[in-house]
Amino acid sequence: MKREDKNAVIDQLKERINNSKHFYIADIGGLDAAETSALRRQWYQDGVGLIVAKNTLLREAMAKAEGDFEELYSILAGPTSIMFSETGNVPAKLIKDFLKNNKKGKPILKGAFVEESVYIGEDQLDVLIAVKSKEELVADLIALLQSPMRNLMSSLDSGKNILAGVVKTLSEKEN
After folding, report:
1. How far apart are CA 7 and CA 164, in angstroms?
2. CA distance 125 to 165
C-alpha cells in the first residue's frame, strides 16, 4: 500500500472516530465470509457501522483524532474491526446476541470508547450493555423529579375526596 493510500485511510478513520460518539474494537477473525456478511447486515440494520482496519493505521488515526485514546493502543494486536454507533450500548448487545448463535466465540470484544470512557477487555461486555446513554439518563432524572410531584398531587386529590366525604357525613349527622 502506498503512503498516500495509507494517509487517506488514516484520515477516513480519524473522521469516523471524530464524528462518532462511541466505537468498539473487536476481533472478528476466523469468521467465514457468510458469517461476516450476516454480521455486517445485522449490525447495519441496527445503525452500527463495521470497518476492518490495520492496527498501525488505526493507531495513527486515533493519535490524530480529537480525544485521548492512548489506553486503547495496547489492544491493537491481531485481527481488528471497529464498530461505530450513535448509541453506546447497542454494539455490546449485538455482540452478545451474535455470540449466542456463533460456536466460534467471535466477535471478541477487545475494548470500547463509550460515553467518553474507555473499557478494555471481553469481561466488560455486560458492563457496556448496562451503560445508559445521556438521553436515557436525562429521562430517568426527569422521572425521578416528577415522582414527588405526582405523589403530592395524588395525595391532594385523594385528600379532597376524603374531606368531601367527612363534610357530607357531618352534614347528614346534623339532620
Report:
1. 78
2. 57
CB 51 within 8 A of CB 43: no
**pTM of the entire structure?**
0.71
CA distance 72 to 150: 46
**Would you tell me the crossing angle of helices 55-64 and 3-19 to the nearest 10 degrees?**
60
Q: Across the chain, what does the average pLDDT equal? A: 82
| Cβ–Cβ under 8 Å, residues 53 and 13 | yes
* Of the candidates 99, 120, 103, 100, the residue with the CA atom closest to the CA atom of residue 111: 120
Query: If phi over 0 gives left and psi between -120 and 50 gives alpha, with beta otherwise, what is residue 93?
Result: alpha
Cell numbers at 106, concatenated: 467471535
- Put residue 64 in one of left, alpha, beta given phi > 0 → left and psi -120 to 50 → alpha: alpha
